[in-house]
Amino acid sequence: EDFEKVIARGKEGTYYIDDGNELEFFEIIDLVKPDVIFTGPRVGELVKKLHIPYVNGHGYHNGPYMGFEGFVNLARDMYNAVHNPLRHLAAVDIRDKSQTTPIIVRGAA
């Protein structure tokens, strides 16, 4: 009944996944091509492999996402996810000597 209520509120073109498996998540991610994903830890581990920034909505260690202060927390976490320098390094195979990817350390003189 709750799922039907959610679908009734959705707009045309919205995708709904109820307890999806890895293949379903990969298909939706390939179809939608999101800039950032707001999810739980299980899907977060999958999108890390695709080098897509994500925010763990179930991780309350950064504060709640409720109210004005919560929106500030969410904006900070989204910014940190998108601009995380480690996300770009994740695609680099450090065993491959032919790849030359400079490591930039911000804030260092």
From TrEMBL:
A GO molecular function held by the record: nitrogenase activity
Highest taxon of the lineage: Bacteria
Chain ranges of the Nitrogenase/oxidoreductase component domain: 11-82
UniProt signal peptide: none
SUPFAM superfamilies: Helical backbone' metal receptor (SSF53807)
Protein name: Dinitrogenase 2 alpha subunit
Gene that encodes the chain: vnfD
